[in-house]
Structures are given as structure tokens and as C-alpha cells.
Amino acid sequence: ALRAAPIGAAWRPAPAAAPLAGCHRSPPPFTGGWVGASADRGHRLRDLGKSGRLPPPTVTRRTGVLVVGAGVAGLACARALVAAGVDDVQLLELEDQAGGNSRSHRLAGLRCPLGAHYLPVPADSDRDLLALLESFDLCRHQHGQWVFDERHLCHSPQERLFFRGHWHEGLLPVPDDDPGALAAYRRFSDRVTEARREAGFALPTATVPWTPAHAALDAVTMRAWLDAQDLHHPLLRAYLDYCCRDDYGAGLGQVSAWAGLNYFASRHGFHAPGDEAVDRDAVLTWPEGNGWLTARMAAPLQSRLNTGRIALRVDAGRDQVTVDSFDVRSGTVERWTAGRVVLATPLFVSARLLAAPPPALVDAVSRQRHAPWLVANLFVDDALDDPPGAAPAWDNVIHGSPLLGYVDAMHQDTRPHGGPTVLTAYWALGGDDAAT
Predict the structure, then answer these.
(1) Which of 107, 260, 362, 367 is the most buried (most CB within 10 A)?
(2) What DSSP string runs through 329-394?
(3) Residue 19's pLDDT band (boundaries 50, 70, 90)?
(4) Contact 32, 308 (CB under 8 A)
(5) Helix 72-83 vs helix 291-298: angle between axes, to the nearest 10 degrees?
(6) How large is the average pLDDT for residues 303-328?
């Protein structure tokens, strides 16, 4: 669940300007601002491009392998190279903090995420990810199975839904006056099971060969596939639309059926209420979200990490690759030469960086659409008290809302009493069709 292109904001209520009068309480003003990705750096890059000619480099640096981008992919690549004995490795990172879409922040002293906030417990076949988590003491192989540190597994209650004026445990409501809801959930569960058996799904996706069955699913939207399966119940549709927006940033009308099914089929399937497997939704999470992971991935690479560098151009020569980057702190251009360069950047960024991008890359980028999330962190100075219904949970979703809901950053904290926390709200901006 690593989200693409999050836009971050952090806010906190300001102190009241005057004492409360009578029995009426006015909402406090809010202070805060935009954090995370730096728009100024993007604008600077745009302005440099408008000039038509980049400033000449003032310094030249040499390395064996240069990794452009220190998000999860770039950090994992650099770690793997170093572990394999390739010691001459350097990374360039646009921002001042590594981690990409999994960076973290502090608001009023409390940790909170700026992007991805959880990691599904990997399957036994995902050996590379399990080895990484084991190196962080998150799991161990014991008596033939993987055991995870319970302090980092999502605490109960995990999810709740605000539906018809009340909070309900879980995200699949089964109203007494709507007996068709449960039947619809079970029919969809059967379809997911069939897709797992006939086509095959797994994480990482590269472990499953791409087949004509996958291509057929990828050629239609999730909404069209549901129509073909005669799955029209509004509560099922609302939940699946939420899932698509949660993982992919866009609704049923834009996400492909392959992606919509992969959400469930690559993990523990889909289970109707009352039919759940005990560990079906086991996830690892932290107050700062997946920033917990990327901080540990980056820690041994600090001497190789060059932050505040805007990559400008990548030119592949016969014997070496040349990369020009803008050093934000010094305001100068530096030139890197390397035997190999890894572009751990989104494809549309890679296509712009390469002096001569391959036609296949240009074609792939022309077919892509992107769906960002808005991530907002709000500091609250007291414990949540929001009856009626189920108690506060880690993930709190409002039925029918354009927002994805909010996560309570302190839900994972082991303090014995309630208190101040940060609520992290997510809004998928991809819309439900190409126009939105």
C-alpha cells in the first residue's frame, strides 16, 4: 500500500483568542501549512527549463553506481547493491528526507505519516520482503512459520464505519432491513476465489506470469466487470469503490478489473461478515506510518545519500552515464559520472530526465494516468470521544464520503490512557472517470 504522489498538509487548532462566553463554544481557528513535497523546487526546475539552457556544472563527481531517487525503490536498490558487494554507490534525492511516498513528520511533537501508513503482512513466498522485515526485528522464523512482533501489528479495534448515524465495527455493513447485502458480499467472495484459481494473483506481482486472462481483466474497468458479473448492490459497490480509491487513488470507473481484484486476491481474498479468516487483514503499522520502515532503510546509507538534489538530465554515453543535478543548498549544478545509473523515479519523470528516452518508455508514459492523494494531519489536544456506536479504531471510514477516512496516529501507542493525538486523513483525488 505504497501510495503515489501524496500532497501533505499539517494543521493544529490555535489557542483561543478570548474566553468562552455563556454555553456556546466557537470552533477554534487553525494554524498549519503544507509540508512534504517542495513545490518551490518543482517551480525552480520549471523555470530552469524555460531558459532553454541549463547553467554549466561547477563541480564533477564520480561514482560506480548512481541511484536517482531515494524512495522505497531507490533505498531498496542501494541496500541490495551494497549487500552484494558493490560499495561505490551514491543516491540523489529531491527532498531533504529520504522515503518518498513513505516519509513521516512530527506535529506538536507527535509522529505522523505523510503518505503510506501500513504494510500488509507478507505471504511466506515473499522472501525478499520477509528478509528485510527480519533485519528490522519485526519478524522471525520459528517452528516452520513466520511470527511477527505483536507490538507492530495493528492493534484492535482495527476498522470501523460511520453508517446511518452510528459507528459500526468493520467496513461491511449488514443492515437488518437489507438482507441482500450479505448475499452480495458472498457472491463477490466467490468471484474473487474463482479469479485466484483461474488467473492467479500474488505479491509481488512479478512472481505470477502475465497471461491472457490478466490482460482481459486489465482491459476493462472494475465497474464494467462488476456489471458483467451482475454485482450491483450499492453497499458492495460503495465498499469496492472505497478500496480502489484507497489503493489506487481513483474509483471503480477508472481502476481496471485486474487491479480491483488484485487488491483482494493477492492477499487473503475477500470474506463476507461472519466468514472472515482470523488473520485476513493483518497489517503492520506505526504512528508515523511507513516512515518507520524507510527511516531504517535509509540509516545505513546516510554517507551515500545526497538530498536536496534536483535531477535535470541523464545522458547515456558509450562508456559512462552523465547526470546533471541542481544542488538546492548551494544553488549550483553538479555533474555526476557513473558506470551505471538506476532511475528509481516514476516513469513519466524518467522519460523527462533521459536525454534520449527509448520509444517504448515514451509510449508507456503516454498511456499512463496518475491519481494523487491529499494527506492531511490534524493535531487534537485531547482523547477522541465520538459516540454513538463502536469505539475509536485505527482506521475510521465514513460511508459515502469522498474522503477515505482518517487514521488515529496514537492508536498504536502503548500508553495506558487516552490523550492528544494526530488524525491523518486521506483524500484520493483521481475521481471516478477520466474527466475528474
Answers:
(1) 260
(2) TTTEEEEEEEEEEEE-S-HHHHHHHBSS--HHHHHHHHH-----EEEEEEEESS-----SBSPP-S
(3) very low
(4) no
(5) 30
(6) 95
User: CA neighbours within 13 Å on the CB side: how many for 265?
Assistant: 23
Matching residue, cell 494516468: 369
Query: Mean of the pLDDT values across residues 194-213?
Result: 92
50 has a pLDDT exceeding 80: no
Grid cell listed for 423: 488524525
Among 249, 230, 252, which Cα is nearest to 241's?
252
Say which amino acid occupies 322: T
Percent of the chain at pLDDT exceeding 70: 90
Q: Distance between CA atoms of 429 and 254, rounded to whole angstroms?
A: 12
DSSP count for the chain of H helices, then E strands: 11, 20
User: In a 10 Å sphere around its CB, with 0-12 CB exposed, 13-18 middle and 19+ buried, how is residue 431 labelled?
Assistant: middle
Give dist(CA 397, CA 394) in Å, integer: 10
Q: Which helix (H) or strand (E) holds 107?
A: strand 104-107
Point out the least confidently predicted range of 54-58, 74-78, 391-395: 54-58
Tally Cβ neighbours within 10 Å of residue 118.
20
State which H helix or E strand residue 291 sits in.
Answer: helix 291-298
Residue (of 360, 362, 355) closest to 341 by Cα position? 355
Three-state SS for 158-209 is CEEEEECCEEEECCCCCCCCCCHHHHHHHHHHHHHHHHHHHCCCCCCHHHCC
Q: Which residues pair with 66 in a beta bridge?
A: 90, 341
Element (H, E) at 405: strand 405-408
pLDDT one-digit tens code per residue, 100-128: 999 999 999 999 999 999 999 998 889 99
Q: Which residues of 286-314 are buried (b: 16+ CB within 10 A; e: fewer)?
A: bbbbbbbbbbebbeebeebbbbbbbbbeb
Q: Which residues contact 109 (CB under 8 A, 6 or more apart)?
A: none
Residues belonging to the chain: 436
The residues, ordered by sequence, that sit 6+ positions from 80 with a Cβ below 8 Å of its Cβ are none
Query: Cis ω on the peptide bond leading into residue 204 (within 30° of 0)?
Result: yes
Helix (H, G, I), strand (E, B) or coil at 423: strand
Rounded to whole angstroms, the Cα distance separating 421 from 382 reads: 7
| CA angle at 281 for the pair 236 and 283, rounded to the nearest 5° | 135
Instruction: Report how far residue 260's alpha carbon sits from residue 240's, in angstroms, rounded to the nearest whole number.
Output: 8
Nearest to 283, CA basis, from 142, 158, 104: 158
To which H or E segment does residue 129 belong?
A: helix 127-135
| pLDDT (mean) for 78-87 | 96
pLDDT mean across residues, the chain: 89
Helix, strand or coil, per DSSP, at residue 220? coil
